[in-house]
Amino acid sequence: MVSVLFKLAKRYQIDVLQAITWNFSVSAILLIIINRPHITLQTFSEIFIYPYIALGTLLPILFLMIAASIRINGIVLTTIVERLALFIPLVISYIIFNGQLNNVELSAIVLCVFAILFIISWKRTTKKSAGGWMYLLATFVCLGVSLILFRQVAQNAIPNTTSLLIVFTIAFIVSLMFLVVHIARKKTRFSWPHILIGWVMGFAFFGYITFNLQIHQAMNTQPRAAFSALNVGIITLAMMVGLFIFNERLTYFNKVGIFLALVAIIVIANTDIINAF
Length: 277
Description:
Layout: H1 2-8, H2 16-35, H3 41-45, H4 49-73, H5 75-84, H6 87-95, H7 103-119, H8 132-154, H9 160-184, H10 193-218, H11 223-245, H12 252-269, H13 271-276
């Protein structure tokens, strides 16, 4: 739903920054209403605040990169890159935290790298899409770093819903600061309808977050199967929407990259089974 709104942004003259700002506001409000997280001054003494600040600052930037990538590259390629960003925490844990990777995991990472190289169209034919590959890479890196920060935040003693409320509140404040600067510099004009658009996006984003939390709970019993089903399902849905509704076009190399991405996700999700052979 969020990707579709980003895709329609230019057609209906939607100010993405304004929509993103109000998206975070309603996401925080929904968290308060539905989950009722308990926050006191003691809460902030129990957590390491810097990952929250970093994540809250990065999320608006990530949304802007995703919106720009969808506008230029389309829903299909952007979604594939988002799914491949899941490999970044795996690589970082190996490089920084001295983690261990088996041959199957290394093979999946190699497939991920080749998938990225095939998905990114380095040569563009129009000035309009000249920076498309940069937005894909920016989405890949920003989302990967966000996932690492989410893991750091999840390690705190407070409930995940409380952590999400803190992150969404920071993201709203940061987005609002960006918006105020843009309005002050007359790069955009405040528009009441964008509050409604942002709230629609916020409902969709909150639903996506809630769905992911439920999936991660399911991962406690069948983690590999849930991981594979979730990501392959998201890619399939994105391809259906992008190809059949918005008539997005894929090059031969893009198709090869998508195939490699699917293989990489399935391989990493079935590491134990493959190692058994």
